Structure formats: structure tokens, C-alpha cells
Amino acid sequence: MFQEISEKFDGIFKRLRGHGKLSEKNISESMREVRRVLLEADVNYKVVKQFIASVEKKAVGQDVLKSITPGQQVIKIIHDELAGLMGEKQEPLTFSNRIPGTIMLVGLQGSGKTTTAGKLATFIQQKGRKPLLVAADVYRPAAVEQLRIVGREIDTMVYSDEGKDVVKICKEAESFAKEHLHDTLIIDTAGRLHVDETMMDELDRLKSELHPEEILFVADGMTGQDAVNTAKVFTEALDFTGVILTKMDGDARGGAALSVRAVTGKPIKFLGVGEKYNQIEVFHPARMASRILGMGDVVSLVEKAQQSIDQEKAAKLEQKMMRDRFTLTDFYEQLQQIKKMGPLQDVLSMLPGNQKALKNMQVDENALVQTEAIINSMTIEERMKPHIINGSRRKRIAYGSGTRVQDVNRLLNQFTMMQKMLKRMKKGRGMSMPFGL
Description:
Layout: H1 3-18, H2 24-40, H3 45-59, H4 62-65, H5 70-85, E1 101-106, H6 113-126, E2 131-136, H7 143-154, E3 158-159, H8 166-179, E4 184-189, H9 197-210, E5 214-220, H10 225-238, E6 242-246, H11 255-264, E7 268-272, E8 280-282, H12 285-292, H13 298-308, H14 311-322, H15 328-340, H16 344-349, H17 354-358, H18 365-376, H19 380-384, H20 391-401, H21 405-429
Parallel strand pairs: 1-4, 1-5, 2-3, 2-4, 5-6, 6-7
Antiparallel strand pairs: 7-8
Helix pairs in contact: 1-2, 1-5, 2-3, 3-5, 5-12, 6-7, 8-9, 10-11, 15-18, 18-20, 20-21
């Protein structure tokens, strides 16, 4: 996410830090580079103009120019202005005491509304709520069936009807939700290839009848300013409450994320960062500014780990490590916990300073799959006592896992090295293993 823009900012910041002292000329030159980077990232040109003017005004102040580390001061100003541009603080979902509460998802066809409905349902289920998905797209072929498939995959009920009156369908879904104790409606509305009067009229009628707590505009983050321009039209016609940017795990240049708040006045509430239903992130402007500037996002990484990793298992594993009882079975369980955190590339990108390291490195997710296959091909005794795995056993394990003997050897060698490292840690300075890793 934002890898290209992060790399360009990294180059600018290196030059800024390289100056022992900064002059107005140095800052002006750096701002020209920042302007170019933002425009290339497809940020709205009016937003860029205002952003640069605000940064320059603060950066040429005497407190900055005469400070011991003026380069770092300017970088902090850019960070704070970026965060402000995207909203300054995180805007949570609004839920009233009304049952059921209602969330409408709106946007153009192809923006990812139906998948986002599943992700949002997964997210609020984790918060202890009981959502009901409502199929309100009666125009697109197979749209209803697509939502039903999503519902089955996330074990969430879907309300649908054969009729064509969308308002009636949604009102009946309200009654169904009350009867079956669903506290939240997530309405997957119809999209079009372009904004039209019929579409807006239908959405306006739904808004008037349902009084939703949230109307979330779903936009494809890869479309840049096209998404922002469409968002502007939707907010003028519908006055939605927030934005969800999808497909942010792809080659998104960042223009939509950096422009949409300033252009529409509406907060970004979530980012879709993968194809799985748990790959949705709450949007935090300050954290996102840190990611864009290559400073990492350790807070989000810790939160992701806390959500994904079983703390009870982690505590038991730590005890095993302290007693030198860490086995391949434990190692396998740790792989399962790590996989829940999402793609490794995304996890590593949250660590400070990793943008440059990741630039030319493709993290091989298949390596984890291969490791799992090898361990699954071992007997329980072999997992508990890897030292008994001789040549013939290695051949059998390689054959059973569809790998080579060299791959089995590599895993066993890595595991042996890990055990030695854990012993040294225990002997040298005690051991505290956060999250069991």
C-alpha cells in the first residue's frame, strides 16, 4: 500500500536530513519535489496547492530554521499536515439505540460493494453485533446470489426478495431483523456504470424511509481522482456519512485517500486491504500518514496481532519455550496464528523503515504453505522429536508433502537453529515473548 509514494518521500527526506541547516531556498526546493510526488500520486491539484502552502508557511518559521534538527522538524510538519488532510482523527461507525440500526452501502458498479458488505458484517460481528445482509440490488444479474454466497462464507444471514420494489424489500428486512433479533442491517444497494438520476432517486427514497445511521460510499481506491470526483457527486446528492476505499492492497497511488476528505468533507472510515473478509482496516489518519512517509505503523501491527493471536495459546507456548519443550507442532500452530494477520508483505510494511527493504523483495507466501505441508506429513512422534527423523523418514516426508528432501532438511535445520537461539535467550537474559512469537 502506497509503496511508490513512500519511496519518493524517502528520497526527499534523505536530502532534507542531509542539510545541517535549512534555508527558505532548501525548503522551497523540497516543496517543489513534494508537489510533484503528490500530483504523480493523483492527488487533487487544489488539495496539493493548499497542502504545500500550509507546509511552507510552517516550515519557514524561525523555530524550524534555527532548530538543531531542521530536517526532522520539516518532516514532522509534513506528517502532521498529511494526517490533517485525511481527517486528523479516526471516525468510528455510528450506532444508535434503535434496533435494528442501518448501514447503507452506495457507489458505482464494480467498486466492491458486495464484498465490502461481507467485510463490514465480519467486522461488526467481532464487535458483538448480529448483522443482517440485505440484497437491495434487483437490477444486476446474479447480484442477489452473489450476496447469498458472501453470507454463507461468513455465516451471516441474507435477506432477499423476488420483488423489484427496493424500498419495500428493505422495510420488510427491518421487520425480519426485529423478529429474528438482528441489531444491524447492512444494505447492499445497486450500483450503475455511471451516476444517473434514477439511481440517485432510489437511494434518496431509501434514505428517507430507512433513516440510516450510516451511508457509506464505497470507492475503488485504484481509480484515484475518478473515485474522488464520483464521491463529490454522491455527497452533493445524498450527503453520505463516510467513505470505504477498496482494493488498497493493489497498486494504489494514494490520490483517493489523500484527496477524498478535503474534497467531500467526509471521513474515510475503512480500507479494504485484501480479498478475505477479515481484510478490512479501520482508517486512522495519523497512522496512515506514518505509513505513507515510510515510518511504519507499529500501533496497527500490535492491534492486528492482538486480534489474530490466541493469547492463551501464546502464554502456554512461552512456558514451553522456557522449559525447552518447543516442538514442530508448536511451530506449526505459530504459522497458523501468523497467517491470520494477513499477507506477510502487508505485515512487514507496518514496521518502520521497511519500505526500502521491501522494494525489491517479494515475500513468498508459498514458503509458509510448503512448511505446513512438510509438518503435516510428519507423524506425531516426529513433530515432538525431530531428532529421530533419519534419511528414510526425510524421503517419506518429502514424498508425502510434494517437496524435496532438501526442503525437509532446510526446515529441520531452521528449527534446530531456532531452538538454539531460544536457549541462548533464556540463558542470557531471561525471556519474554510477546504474542508467543
